[in-house]
Specification:
This protein is mainly alpha-helical and 167 residues long. The chain is 62% helix and 0% strand. The chain is built from 7 helices and no strands.
């Protein structure tokens, strides 16, 4: 009695493609939806009084940044493997804290709900929440603050001092 050889695991590329197709079939997410999500989100970000200046101080040419973010979200949501960067080191020196991440998520959730069907919005929001939590923990740690579960990172602010009185 001869046995047939054990099936060979598909290549990483084949597994990635299968995962992407499964996610697309279950949620309707595709590259065009990701592009609309990223474009819509960053349109809101640029107009936002709290987080807009953080981006404006660092990004002068939005085209490459948006293209990079589309690759990032494609990799995060569709397992496409199109993003090969290391986002954490770029974010560690940013002057942000939990308040900025809350606003980032608020804008992201609103954009996702406007752009995506419910199942797709739920998935991308879930991923964004994990990313936000991870980045906040890392930024806090880079600033010497170790957060316990449920704690938030809030940067100390300088106390307001009235300007000197001039007669």
């Amino acid at each position: 009695m001869t046995s047939s050889p054990a099936p060979i695991d598909p290549s990483p590329d084949a597994r990635r493609a299968a995962a992407s197709h499964r996610i697309e079939a279950e949620t309707g997410i595709d590259e065009a939806m990701i592009a609309r999500l990223v474009d819509g989100f960053y349109d809101r970000v640029r107009q936002d009084a709290l987080i807009g200046p953080v981006f404006a101080d660092r990004i002068s040419d939005w085209g490459p940044h948006l293209a990079q973010m589309k690759r990032f979200w494609s990799s995060i949501v569709l397992a496409s493997g199109t993003y090969q960067g290391r986002p954490m080191p770029k974010h560690l020196p940013l002057p942000v804290d939990g308040r900025h991440f809350d606003r980032w998520l608020e804008l992201f959730r609103a954009t996702a709900r406007d752009v995506c069907p419910a199942a797709a919005a739920d998935l991308v929001i879930q991923r964004a929440e994990r990313i936000g939590e991870s980045f906040e923990l890392a930024i806090a740690g880079a600033n010497g603050v170790l957060l316990r579960k449920g704690e938030r990172f809030v940067r100390p602010t300088e106390a307001w001092v009235p300007p000197p009185h001039r007669p």
